[in-house]
Amino acid sequence: MGSITIAQLELIVARRNMWVATSVFMMALFSVVLTLAGGATAGNLGVDPLSVAMTSITTLSVYLVPLIALLLSFDAIAGELERGTLALNLSYPISRGEILLGKFLAHFIIMAFAIAVGLGISALLVVWRHGFVDLSFAPMFRLYLTALPLGATFLGIGYLISALARQPGVASGLVIIVWLVLVVLYDLGLLGALVADDGGYFTNTIFPVLLLANPADAFRLLNMPEISVTALTSGLNAIGPGIDKTWLLISLLGWPILALFLAWIAFRKVET
Amino acid sequence: MSALIISRATKQYGSDEVVRNVSLKIEAGERIALLGHNGAGKTTLIKMILGLTPFEKGKIEVLGTAPGSKKARSSIGFLPESVAFQGALSGREQLHHFARLKSMTMGKADDLLERVGLGSAADRKIRTYSKGMRQRVGLAQAILGKPKLVLLDEPTSGLDPISRHEFYDIVKDLSEAGAAVLLSSHALTEMETRTDRIAILRKGRLVANDKISTLRQQAAMPIVVRVTTSAKKVEQVAGELGARRVNGKVVELTCLQNEKVATLSRITDLGDLIRDVEVTPASLEELYRHFSSIEQEVI
Q1: Cβ distance of B100 and A90 shorter than 8 Å
Q2: What's the ipTM?
Q3: What is the C-alpha to C-alpha distance for residues A253 and A246, in angstroms, rounded to an integer?
Q4: Where do runs of H (alpha helix) occur along A46-95?
C-alpha cells in the first residue's frame, strides 16, 4: 500500500521534471532512425522488414535501455538523502523496502511506456512503408518482453549506486561509468580476449559463462534473429548460439531480482 | 503513559560520544525546548527518538513502544531541520502524499493547509514558495493525523516574526489537544514564554532540564535593578544603595534571586528620591550561556 503511494508521487514528479518525455523521446527517435535506415537493406536480402528493424533496435536497446534505466534511478536514494526527505519519509509508517519498491514500480512503468512507444512507432513505420504482408510480430514482442527485465536490472543497479554514493552528483557520475563498463567495455573486452585467444580454452569454457553473466548479452542473444538475418549482425552475435536459451532466460530474469536485492541491502545501511 | 521516556541513552560515532547518557521524559501536553550549540547532539537525539539512528546504550520509549516501531511512527509528527520538498509538486499534492502514508483522508490534509495559512497557495508549485511557505508545508505534515508526540527540529529558522507567532499558536493548540511537543532551536528569546520546560544539551550531555524559573534559581544569576532618580540626587541614591552610576539620572545594582525582595524594599524606603525602578531577571540567553559552560550533567 505504501509502495503504491510512493509510486504515485514518483510518477507525478517524473512527468513534471520531463523524465518521462525524455525517455520516450530517446526511444522514439532512435527507433525511427534505425527503422528507416534498416529499411534500405531489407529489400535486398528478401527478409521480413519488421524483423530487420527489430534486429537493429535490439542492438540499440542494449545501449539505450540500460542508459534510460540508470538515468531514472540514480537520484532515487541519494537525492532524497540530500533533500532531507528520506528521514522524513522514514518517520512515517513505511519501510525502506516499501519506498524502494514504490520507486521501482514508477520507474518501471515509465521505462515500459518509453520502450513500448519506440517499438510501436517502429512497427507503424514498417507497416506504412511495406503494408501488412508477411510481417512477423513475434520478434517485436520478444524484444519488448526481454527489454523489460534488462531495464529492471539497471534500475536496480542505479538504486544500488544511489545508495552507495549518497550524493546525487557522485551517483550521476558513477552510473555513467558503470554504464560504459557494463554495456560498452564489457563486450569490447570479450571481443579482444576472443581474438587473442583464437579458439582456445577461453573461447570454449570461460567466454560462454561471461556472456551469460551479463544481462545485456543475454538479452542480445535471446533476441538473435533466425539464421537468415544473422548476416546482418556482427560481433558477438555470431558466436552466441552455443548457449542454451534457458540459461539466457535465467540470467535475464535473475539479474533484476539480484540487483534490487543488493540495492535494498545497501539502502538499509544508509544512515539518514 | 509518558509520550517519551529517554533513559541514559548514549550514541557513539567511533569513539566520539555525540549523545552521552541523556535522560529526558515528556508527558502529554508538555512543550519542551531543546537547546544547544550546533553539534551539541540535538538532531542526533531527535533521530534516535524516531528510530532512524541506532544507539549503543540506554533505552528510549515512545508511547510505551520502541522507537521506529509502526505504532510509534503512526503517532509521531516530525519536521526535519532543513527539508526540501519536490519543487515540481504543489503544496496540496505533497500534503496529500503524506496524508496517504498516514492513512488520513485528503479532506483532513486540505483542512491543515488552511490551518497553516497555505489555503490560497495550495495549488501552486512548491518551487514558487517562499522559505516561510515551505516551512508551513513542513509544519502541516508534522501535525497530520493528531500525533501524540511532535518533534520539531529548528522549526522557526528563516521565518519572519509574524510567521513565528502563528507557528507558536499552532504549537500551543497542539499541546492543548494533548500532544507532547519537543522543539529544538537556537532562537532562545521566543522560547521563553512559549514552552513549559527547557532542556539544554552541551557536547551531547544534558546540562539543564527544568522550568525557566527553576533554572534561574539554580543558576543564581544576578538580577539587574536599575533605579531612576533626578540629576541632583543621583550621587545620594548611589551612595545609599551602594549602586553604580550609569548616567546622570540612573544607577544600577545587582542582587540574587533570594535578595530581590529585600533589595526592592531598600529602594522603596528612599521614597520620593526614586522616580522609577526596572528589574531585569537573567534572560534565557544568559541562562543558556551559563548552562552551556558548565560540565555537570543532570539525570
Answers
A1: no
A2: 0.85
A3: 11
A4: 49-73, 78-83, 85-90
* Cell representation of residue B92: 496540496
For A21-41, write each residue's pLDDT tens digit: 999 999 999 999 988 887 655
Q: Least CA distance to B84: which residue of chain A?
A: A83
- CB < 8 Å to A102, chain B: none
Q: Read off the pLDDT of residues B146-161 as tens digits, 9 standing for 90 and up.
A: 899 999 998 887 788 8
Q: Which of A17, A84, A271 sits opposite B83 (nearest CB)?
A: A84
Size of interface A-B (CB pairs under 8 A): 64
Q: Is the Cβ–Cβ distance between A189 and A226 less than 8 Å?
A: no
Looking at the domain that runs over B222-280, which CATH code has it been given?
A: 3.30.70.920
Question: A90-124 burial, b for 16+ CB within 10 Å, e for fewer?
Answer: bbbbbebebbbbbbbbbbbebbeebbebbbebbbe
> Which of the residues B50, B63, B93, B100 would you substitute to probe the A interface, choosing the one with the greatest number of A C-beta atoms within 10 Å?
B100
Q: For B4-217, CATH number?
A: 3.40.50.300
Note the pTM of the prediction, 2 decimals: 0.86
Contact list in A for residue B89 (CB cut-off 8 A) is: 9, 12-13, 16
